[in-house]
Design brief:
The protein has 424 residues and is mostly helical. Helices cover 76% and strands 1% of the residues. The two termini are 30 Å apart.
């Protein structure tokens, strides 16, 4: 902890230097912007993460809090917007997304596809309830309260249906319960949620852009998703064994990290080409590599791959969670109508996912824990909101309210789930 606080002078230096450079142009200035932004993100994330852990909550809550601080420094007299700088940096945006991709890849490495298939029916049931309830309740609340009617209400419901598997996955890894039956249901249901969410977004996007639903467009997305999974199985059975055999000729374990990272990125990109979230491809890549034998010098080395990728993953995840916080604008809390939206949508977001866990059948499951594990919203929900805002489906107030809901679920999910992990 003492080491982390040694970065405090760098944080103060970045706070002093970044505002004057916020509007500068040119390649060298762009490098300086990114460097100072990284210093701000990583240092403040470390400090707030330590404070959060000392208060008995998960580190990621502190990292999101760090983002809120950086995103609202204008309230303290600083003349720059960290959120705008983040959105203007391709490197920072890519780093944040890469962090989630690597996290899901490592989770896949620690999981077993056979175990996931065993809970497939339960995962599908949880995912179905966890999509239907939020959508219907979101549409209903928007119509009754008048802040989201018609197509806007459906976008609100769709955003509330998306689960952020990355947030819960990090908590499951920290407590070493990824391989438990309840955790496998959460992971399986979250992946299904993402697939359904992408299809739902495709339908809504088609209505916005063309005025109607394109059956051909939806069919193409489903076809590409099917081809992706077929291609993944083909790669696993035909190409991976040869690649692993070649890598085994090296005496250095670092070659496995390079092979694993490349495979994760390939699968993530293939998933993106198929219209799916890249993290689904990364998760599947980890599952496929799980059965491979990593040998260096006569000793199995798969655990070394995870250890080598973990530090980079942790740094990139800090950027991701701080980035979520940066999008929260505290000024909107001064509007009573926005506060009402936040409260109502948060209650819907929390209750609808918590109830979904009780769709599980069989013994040995923590149903409430499974539901709470589905509560956090994150990257997929924010994609919904950003698209709706860009198409003028969402007002600025509704968008801000929904970002707050994402934040609250991101904080509440881990806080409520942590005490139940002992029952997993």
């Amino acid at each position: 902890m003492r080491y982390r606080f040694r970065r405090l002078p760098w944080l103060l230096l970045a706070l002093v230097l970044l505002p004057p450079l916020a509007n500068a142009n040119g390649a060298s200035e762009a490098f300086t912007h990114t460097t100072l932004l990284l210093i701000l993100f990583l240092t403040l994330a470390d400090i707030c993460g330590v404070i959060a852990e000392r208060l008995g909550v998960t580190e990621l809550v502190g990292e999101i809090t760090a983002g809120i601080i950086l995103g609202n420094l204008s309230l303290l007299g600083f003349s720059f917007d960290a959120g705008e700088l983040l959105r203007g940096s391709e490197f920072m945006e890519y780093a944040a997304e890469l962090g989630i991709v690597l996290l899901l890849f490592i989770v896949g490495l620690e999981s077993d596809m056979r175990d996931l298939l065993k809970v497939g029916r339960n995962a599908a049931s949880v995912a179905a309830i966890g999509v239907i309830l939020p959508v219907l309740l979101g549409v209903g609340a928007g119509a009754v309260l008048g802040f989201a009617d018609g197509l806007t209400g459906w976008f609100v419901g769709a955003m509330l249906a998306a689960t952020s598997v990355g947030i819960t996955a990090k908590l499951l890894r920290e407590d070493h319960v990824v391989s438990t039956p309840s955790a496998r249901v959460i992971l399986g249901a979250a992946v299904i949620d993402d697939v359904v969410g992408i299809l739902l977004l495709a339908v809504l996007a088609s209505i916005v852009t063309t005025g109607g639903v394109s059956a051909a467009g939806i069919a193409i997305i489903v076809l590409k998703a099917g081809l992706f999974f077929v291609a993944a199985v083909f790669v696993a059975h035909r190409i991976l064994p040869a690649a692993v055999s070649f890598a085994a000729l090296s005496k250095h374990s670092s070659i496995w990290a390079g092979l694993a990272l490349s495979f994760a990125l390939i699968m993530a990109q293939l998933a993106a080409f198929a219209g799916l979230a890249p993290l689904i491809g990364a998760f599947l890549a980890g599952l496929l590599l799980d059965d491979m034998v990593f040998v260096v010098g006569g000793h199995e080395a798969k655990h070394r791959v995870e250890e080598m990728l973990q530090p980079m993953t942790d740094i990139l995840l800090s950027i991701f969670f701080v980035g979520i916080g940066c999008q929260v604008q505290l000024s909107v809390l001064a509007q009573p109508s926005v506060l009402l939206m936040i409260v109502v949508l948060f209650v819907i977001a929390l209750a609808s996912k918590a109830v979904a866990g009780f769709a599980v059948r069989g013994e040995g499951f923590d149903r409430l824990g499974i539901g709470l594990g589905m509560v956090p919203r994150g990257e997929v929900g924010l994609v919904f909101a950003a698209f709706a805002l860009s198409q003028q489906v969402f007002s600025a107030q509704l968008f801000s309210a929904l970002v707050f809901v994402v934040l609250l679920t991101t904080i509440a999910g881990p806080l409520l789930l942590s005490p139940r992990l002992g029952r997993f």
